[in-house]
């Protein structure tokens, strides 16, 4: 049973809450495009660029405004996307220090790149359709 069906999410979000969620998806998408078009990797651009860092800070600052609405799940989705990417990149960085781990690190970079694109596109489409995210 979804949150909407169970009644756990009752309040309609303020328009500014939805706008902030859209801005965060846009900032993350911009960071991904910069990574694709520029000399940085997508993951490096996503984690280390000003747009993505601003996006995660904005998530934390405005998260309480979304509490109790279907948009709160998007804030959680966006925050988790950022921090799980950080976790996987730390793992890849550790793997790089071993000769045998380098191919695995490259594979992690590739998989995380696809995963980031998927998470941002899926989340933004569900936000557009006014649907909550599920972990």
Structure description:
The chain has one domain. It is built from six helices and no strands. The N terminus is likely disordered. It is elongated, with a radius of gyration of 16 Å. Helix 2 runs antiparallel to helix 4, helix 2 packs antiparallel against helix 6 and helix 3 crosses helix 4. It is mainly α and 135 residues long.
Q: Give a quick account of the main beta sheet: strands, pairing sense, barrel closure.
A: none
Radius of gyration, whole Å: 16 Å
Number of domains: 1
Shape: elongated
Average pLDDT: 87
Structural class of the secondary structure composition?
A: mainly alpha
Helical percent range? over 70%
The overall strand count is 0
What would you call the quaternary organization?
A: single chain
Strand content: under 5%
Distance between the termini: 14 Å
Summarize the model shown:
This protein is mostly helical and 135 residues long. 76% of the residues lie in helices and 0% in strands. The protein has helices spanning 3-6, 15-37, 42-48, 50-66, 72-96, 102-128.
Features:
mainly alpha, disordered N terminus, single chain, 135 residues
Which helices and strands occur, and which strands form pairs?
Blueprint: H1 3-6, H2 15-37, H3 42-48, H4 50-66, H5 72-96, H6 102-128
Helix pairs in contact: 2-3, 2-4, 2-6, 3-4, 4-5, 5-6
